[in-house]
Structures are given as structure tokens and as C-alpha cells.
Specification:
With 572 residues, the protein is of the alpha/beta class. The protein folds into two domains: 86-242 and 457-569, 3-Layer(aba) Sandwich (Rossmann fold); 252-388, no CATH class. Helix content is 31%, strand content 11%. A nine-stranded mixed β-sheet has the order 1-2-5-3-6-7-10-12-11, with helices on both faces. The longest helix is centred in the middle third of the chain and has 20 residues, at 364-383. It is globular. Bound molecules: 2-acetamido-2-deoxy-beta-D-glucopyranose (12 copies). One 2-acetamido-2-deoxy-beta-D-glucopyranose (NAG) binds at residues 259-262, 347-348, 351, 359-361. One of its GO terms (biological process) is proteolysis. It comes from Collybiopsis luxurians FD-317 M1. Residues 1-23 form the signal peptide. One of its GO terms (molecular function) is serine-type exopeptidase activity.
């Protein structure tokens, strides 16, 4: 059973099995391009020495606690995983670090670091600037685990999963590289593999350029504010840099995009279900839960096989919020697909009553009342095959770690707007409910509410930063928590595509960036996929933009213009 309100909607789905077929790293060229950007020209690698191939992971020994040297269960350090692709590296070229954020990074390797399935912005930038590409895995995700992650992870073990620790990991990593302009050749022979750390990639001698979408975009912006000496520039895509406990705005974009009749029906049905579930007639409540569960389990063409085993007892055991939030199933993929591809098919089914009647402007409710609208809604839920979309956690450990992060620092509790009577989210989704779930999942060491000030102290959506490009999608639910937010409590700043001077901070009214018309979450920083039979459905949405390829080129082109402006000033 899916608990929709627990789903990490920030997570980029990574559901594809990965085959590691690229084994041989290219050998180094013996001739090097003219060095640039602060690197003295004495840097040379012996001919044929090779960096490890990007399909094999590398590890750095990372302090568990950067700030107070605490030790828990004998653990003082852990192995933090990363990958490198040095195919395009030329002496003096920048570092392009792509952050995978709150997920196992491994499935991303062939997409973002090898261009195995199409162009990646990270590799295009590496090619253009002679840079070295790094894929970085976040502590407590994938294989970068100080402790095993499960329901048994203790509060003492969780305490090192904080924004500050995870940002400091990047600083520690960057500082681990050499400042020397030449690699000691004494220990190397002509066919040896060199340690990446022996390359002169220390951020004092090489510009580090960050690429991240969603939470990784937040990290890039925070790092540029916090450690400008480490992160020289950043492309922060769809970055909700303003943490807020109450994120009712999450659904505002979807609500705004609904057709009028669909909105009228959705609002009416939501109120109807909430009212029945809150009412005194217990058998009516169980019946409505049964109907909702049955619709979710049923498939297209009136196929109710999936619901065959469903009983009234099961329905009775289903909580009000679990049952009522089935009405929100069609919203699950909105952030990736936008209205036309995720909600319109549903609205069409609903408004035509499964293609048996013509739609009317006031919705089904205006013709058949709310009970008629409810039946049409159930039919639409059943016919739209959301059951085939993987909604249950693919990476339970990663989901727990992200839950820990939002429960302790980010909030982003996605409920409906309680003061908007056109809200299409069940009123059972309350802030208190989210908090209660957090408290149940993490029994101790959790603040009473998420400590959003840990994030917002870097400026939140008022952040006046230099050398960052903030990209957003017009209808991305996460735009509401970023610099480009148009919500009522936001500063209403406007993106400007005019590239600012190097190290020149933005001001209170404007910032450098772009909001792509009609686009959604991280529509730019995805792989420009070569479509094939493995990339046709929701499962691969994490890797490419199902809406449009245009933002890939727009974002990359604008960021290149910015880097052309900024990189020459590195070290000056
Ligand atoms: C932590 O330990 C390291 C190495 O022993 C030491 O250099 C550092 O000063 C310590 N930091 C703190 C905050 O105690
Ligand atoms: C690095 O990326 C390029 C494509 O951008 C790819 O051709 C190459 O195989 C990758 N290198 C490694 C070692 O995976
Ligand atoms: C080169 O170095 C590697 C690893 O240190 C070693 O295994 C190999 O025997 C060396 N080759 C030669 C020709 O010295
Ligand atoms: C639902 O379950 C409760 C507790 O087991 C029971 O008292 C109640 O009669 C059940 N209601 C229905 C309609 O089955
Ligand atoms: C309770 O709801 C059921 C439908 O589930 C209905 O048949 C019954 O009449 C209702 N009872 C009352 C007291 O309204
Ligand atoms: C929807 O319409 C299709 C095609 O007419 C039909 O097979 C199916 O049973 C209908 N589904 C529902 C839930 O009414
Ligand atoms: C009906 O749905 C079940 C799963 O719920 C599926 O196994 C079966 O193939 C479907 N039948 C048809 C005719 O599509
Ligand atoms: C009703 O909604 C459908 C689907 O959202 C839309 O295509 C249609 O234009 C609407 N019809 C009217 C009359 O508003
Ligand atoms: C929502 O509130 C507005 C103004 O308060 C009112 O005009 C409108 O009828 C209400 N809509 C619904 C669906 O309750
Ligand atoms: C903010 O920056 C923009 C773009 O550089 C500029 O046009 C605008 O005048 C500035 N506003 C203020 C208040 O400084
Ligand atoms: C799809 O994935 C499978 C398994 O990884 C692979 O064998 C197959 O070649 C892929 N198909 C295409 C068209 O890339
Ligand atoms: C080859 C070389 O010059 N190596 C030096 C790099 O810098 C470290 C200290 O920063 C020295 O210990 C190395 O000898």
C-alpha cells in the first residue's frame, strides 16, 4: 500500500537497473592543452597513466563528525563514494561536480557521467571547458553510509545526517586534492593508475563548478554562500532554497493548471469524502474507503481483478488519511509531467465520465450532484492506470534518510491550503499529522518541528549570491520555495538572463536565472535521452525530461555564457 503523503516528492526516481559495461578507461594523452585558470604550466602526467574509469566507484575516507569529533559505535570515519570521468580533462580545466543528493548515485553513472543514453550537461561542460567530471554521493545514501540505514538506525547514529555535515563533506573532499602543479612521478610507472587526489584540483588552484537539480541545487546555492572559496560557480536547477514547514504551496501550481470543470469536481469530491469520513455513519465511511481502495487497485477496461481480494475489513482498517489521499493519486507525477501529460488524461476521463458523456463547464457535479461526480471520479481513477506506476519506495534506506532530513530540517510538509476553498487535498493531511509521522519514525533527537533556520540562515529566497544560475520550471511545485517563487509570502524577485559580472551578487529584486515557460521540475538538467524501448515510461523520468528537450539546450547555453564570463576571473 502506498502512503502518498510519505512519498519523497523531491526524489528523482531512479528505478532503472544499471549495467556496467564500460570497463576500459581511456589512456591519458601525452600532450596537454595550454593550461588556464591559475594552473602553472608545469603540470604534466606521465604518458599512459590513467585515472580510474568512471564506472568504478572511488571512495574517500570522510570524518563522521566535522565539527566536534564525536564517535558513535566506534565509527569516526566512513567511506564516501564518488565517480570521476576524466575523458575530457586537460591540465588546468575546471571541476564539474554533479551532486546526486538524496538518492543512491549509482544508477546515475551511465546517464550523467558517461552519456551512455544521451547527452548530459555535466559531460558537455567538461568537454567544452576541458574539465574533469565528478559524480558525488551524499552521506547516508547509496553506499556512503556511516551506519546501516533501517528502522533500527539509532538517534545517535542519525545525528550526523545534517545539512551542515553534508555540506562540509564537499569542502573536505575538495580540500583533499593537491595544490601542487605537478604530480610526483616517482611512484608511477607508465601503466599505473594514479590517485585522483594527486591531481591539482584543490579549489584554491582550480575552479569548482557545481551542478545540481532539486535538493542538490539547494546544496549548490548553500555551498556558494557558505564556502565561496570552495564552490566557484553553480547551476542550481529547481532549487527550493527556502525551507518552510508548511508547504501548502506544493499543490498550488497543479490547482492553478486545472480546467474549470475538473477543478469543480475535484473540489466537490474531496469535500464529500472528507465529510463522510468525519461523519457519524460508520458503515458509510467504510463503504467509501472500500470504493476508493477498489478504484486504486483496478485497471483499465473495467478490469477489477486487482481488487479481487479486497474486503470491507481491510477498508475498515485503512486510516481516513490513507483513504482520502487516494483522491490525490493523479497528482503524483505532476511535478515531472505537468498538466498536459499527467492531469489532463485524468480530467478527460472524469469530465466525460469515462468517455460516455460530453463535458460541461460546471463539471459533473453541476449535472449529477456530488455523488455522481464521485462515481465519475472513481471510474477515472480505475481507468487511469496509476497502479502500474511504481509508487512504493524503491530505495527504502534512501527514503528513510530523506525523511530524517525533512523531519529535522526542511519541513516541506505538503498539505492543502487550509484557507483556500478550491483546494483539492484532503483536510486530513495536516501539519500535525506530518509531524506525528516524523515523531513515530524517529523516536528521539528530533526537534519538535523542523529547524528550517538551519537552511534559511543562508538567505533562503532572499539569497543575494554571485556566480549562481537559478533555473526553474513555470509549473514546478518546487518553484514555490525558490528565488522565482510567486507565492504571496515570497519576495517576488524576477529572474534575469543577463549574465552578471563575476562575483557580483544579485539584489533584492532580481537574480540571475531563467524560468522556463510551461516546464516542471528540473526540466533542464536531465539527460538528453536517445529514446529507446527502455525509456518510454514513468520509470525513467528521473533521467530525462518527458515534457521537452528544449530546456536542456537553453539551460546549458545560458550557463555556458555565464561560465565564459566568470571562469576567466578565477583566482584574480
Ligand atoms: C578533531 O580531530 C582532529 C584530528 O585529531 C583535530 O585536528 C581537530 O582539531 C579536532 N576538531 C575538533 C573540533 O575538536
Ligand atoms: C566519459 O564520458 C564520455 C562521454 O561524455 C564517454 O564517452 C566515456 O566513455 C566516459 N568515460 C568513462 C571512463 O566512462
Ligand atoms: C607499474 O606499477 C604497477 C602498480 O604499482 C605494478 O603492478 C607494475 O608491475 C608496474 N609495472 C612496471 C613495468 O614497472
Ligand atoms: C470497523 O472496525 C471496528 C473495530 O474493529 C469495529 O468496531 C466496527 O464495527 C467495524 N465497522 C464496520 C462497518 O465494519
Ligand atoms: C449510513 O450509510 C449507509 C450507506 O453506507 C446507509 O445505507 C445508511 O442508511 C446510513 N445510515 C444512516 C443512519 O444514515
Ligand atoms: C470505461 O470504459 C471502457 C470502454 O468503454 C469500459 O471497458 C470500462 O469498463 C469503463 N470503466 C469503468 C470503470 O466504468
Ligand atoms: C487485469 O488486471 C490484472 C492485474 O490486476 C492483470 O494481471 C490482468 O492481466 C488484467 N487483465 C487484462 C485483460 O488486462
Ligand atoms: C472540461 O474539462 C475537460 C478536461 O479537463 C476539458 O478538455 C474541457 O474543455 C472542459 N469543458 C468545458 C465545457 O469546460
Ligand atoms: C469559495 O469562496 C468564494 C469566496 O469566499 C465563494 O464565492 C465560492 O463560492 C467558494 N467556492 C466553493 C467551491 O466553495
Ligand atoms: C538589481 O539588479 C538588476 C540587474 O542587474 C538591475 O537592473 C536593477 O536595477 C537592480 N535593482 C536595484 C534595486 O539595485
Ligand atoms: C534495454 O535494457 C536491457 C537490459 O539492460 C538491454 O539488454 C537492452 O539492450 C536495452 N535496450 C535498448 C534498446 O537499449
Ligand atoms: C610534487 C610536489 O611538489 N609535491 C608536494 C605537494 O605539496 C605537498 C604539501 O602541500 C608536499 O608535501 C609535496 O611534496
Amino acid at each position: 500500500m502506498r502512503l502518498m503523503y510519505l512519498l519523497d516528492l523531491l526524489t528523482i526516481l531512479t528505478l532503472l537497473a544499471v549495467s556496467s559495461t564500460i570497463a576500459t578507461p581511456p589512456s591519458r594523452q601525452s600532450s596537454w592543452m595550454a593550461p588556464r585558470m591559475g594552473i602553472p604550466d608545469s603540470f604534466e602526467l606521465p604518458a599512459n597513466t590513467a585515472l580510474p574509469g568512471s564506472n568504478e566507484p572511488l571512495f574517500i575516507e570522510m570524518p563522521l563528525d566535522h565539527f566536534t569529533n564525536l564517535t558513535v559505535d566506534g565509527v569516526t570515519t566512513f567511506q564516501n563514494r564518488y565517480w570521476i570521468n576524466a575523458s575530457y580533462y586537460e591540465a588546468g580545466g575546471p571541476v564539474f561536480i554533479f551532486d546526486s543528493g538524496e538518492q543512491n548515485a549509482e544508477p546515475l553513472v551511465p546517464y550523467y557521467l558517461q552519456e551512455y543514453h544521451g547527452l548530459s550537461a555535466t559531460m558537455r561542460l567538461a568537454k567544452r571547458y576541458g574539465g574533469i567530471a565528478i559524480l558525488w554521493e551524499h552521506r547516508y545514501y547509496g553506499d556512503s553510509l556511516p551506519f546501516p540505514i533501517s528502522r533500527n538506525t539509532t538517534p545517535q547514529q542519525w545525528q550526523f545526517l545534517t545539512t551542515e555535515q553534508a555540506l562540509e563533506d564537499v569542502v573536505f573532499f575538495a580540500d583533499s586534492f593537491s595544490k601542487n602543479s605537478s604530480v610526483s612521478t616517482g611512484s608511477l610507472n607508465s601503466s599505473a593508475t594514479i590517485l585522483p587526489q594527486s591531481l591539482p584540483l584543490h579549489p584554491s588552484v582550480t575552479p569548482w563548478v557545481w551542478l545540481g537539480g532539486s535538493y542538490p541545487g539547494v546544496r549548490g546555492a548553500l555551498l556558494r554562500q557558505r564556502n565561496p572559496g570552495t564552490i566557484f560557480a553553480a547551476w542550481a536547477s529547481s532549487a527550493p532554497v527556502h525551507a518552510q514547514v508548511d508547504m501548502w504551496a506544493y499543490y498550488a501550481a497543479a490547482e492553478r493548471s486545472l480546467t474549470r470543470n475538473c477543478s469543480a469536481d475535484w473540489v466537490a469530491v474531496t469535500k464529500y469524502v472528507d465529510t463522510v469520513l468525519q461523519g457519524a455513519n460508520e458503515s458509510a465511511a467504510v463503504d467509501i474507503k472500500f470504493d476508493l481502495l477498489k478504484a486504486r487497485l483496478s485497471g483499465p477496461g473495467g478490469n477489477t481483478t486487482g481488487a479481487d481480494g479486497l474486503t470491507k475489513e481491510q477498508a475498515n482498517r485503512t486510516s481516513d488519511v490513507d483513504a482520502a489521499s487516494i483522491l490525490m493519486d493523479p497528482l503524483d507525477f505532476y511535478q515531472y509531467y505537468g498538466f498536459a501529460d499527467s492531469l489532463l488524461p485524468f480530467c478527460n476521463l472524469l469530465e466525460t465520465r469515462n468517455f460516455t458523456a460530453a463535458p460541461v463547464e460546471g463539471g459533473v457535479v453541476s449535472v449529477s450532484g456530488v455523488e455522481g461526480a464521485f462515481l465519475a471520479f472513481l471510474a477515472a481513477l480505475a481507468e487511469l492506470d496509476y497502479d502500474s506506476i511504481p509508487g512504493s519506495p524503491d530505495d527504502p534506506a534512501g527514503d528513510m534518510s530523506w525523511m530524517r532530513q525533512y523531519c529535522s530540517e526542511y519541513g516541506f510538509y505538503q498539505r492543502g491550503n487550509p484557507s483556500d476553498n478550491l483546494s483539492i487535498e484532503t483536510s486530513f493531511l495536516s501539519l500535525e499529522l506530518f509531524q506525528q509521522q516524523c515523531n513515530e519514525a524517529f523516536t528521539d533527537h528530533l526537534p519538535s518541528w523542523p529547524q528550517v533556520e538551519n537552511i534559511n540562515k543562508y538567505g533562503g529566497w532572499n539569497m543575494q549570491s554571485s556566480n549562481i544560475m537559478f533555473a526553474n520550471g513555470e509549473f514546478d511545485p518546487w518553484r514555490t520555495m525558490g528565488l522565482a517563487s510567486i507565492e504571496i509570502n515570497a519576495p517576488q524577485r524576477k529572474p534575469s538572463v543577463v549574465v552578471p559580472g563575476c562575483n557580483v551578487p544579485s539584489n533584492a529584486t532580481t537574480f540571475f536565472g531563467i524560468t522556463y515557460d510551461n516546464m516542471v521540475h528540473v526540466s533542464d538538467m536531465r539527460v538528453l535521452l536517445v529514446p529507446d524501448s527502455n525509456h518510454t515510461d514513468f520509470k525513467t523520468v528521473g533521467f530525462y525530461s518527458p515534457v521537452s528537450q528544449a530546456p536542456f539546450y537553453t539551460g546549458l547555453g545560458l550557463f555556458q555564457l555565464a561560465l565564459d564570463e566568470w571562469l576567466p576571473c578565477f583566482g584574480k
